[in-house]
Design a protein that fits this description.
- The structure is a single chain.
- The protein is built from five helices and two strands; from the N terminus they run H-E-H-H-E-H-H.
- By secondary structure, the protein is mainly α.
- The chain has a single domain, classed as Arc Repressor Mutant, subunit A (Orthogonal Bundle).
- The N terminus is likely disordered.
Amino acid sequence: MPKTTSSVANSPNANRPLDSLYARIYARVRRIPPGRVSTYGHIARLVGGCSARQVGYAMAALPEGSRVPWQRVINAKGEISRRRHGNGTDNQRAQLLAEGIHFDFKGRIDLRRYGWLSH
């Protein structure tokens, strides 16, 4: 059996396939209303059995044109996480601005004002 470092393999949900985890992540992200944001860590806590990093992987795995509002998930600093490829960062910023979410001079979103803290 191959050695794994995945926290999914060590989670209480280890017997569930990865797509089941992603489906649960996407279901939570779909609940974030327009004009609000949530963090990778907050979504991970709501879903349970995963990490903020896994939420990031799930957002990155979305196909082009997905209806999951991936743009509403940001990092704990209130920033858009940088992407290695493409113009996803600029696209995410533009979509959030279109929803009425504002950035400060450091490029951060005020989580107290725009944060979605659903249970």
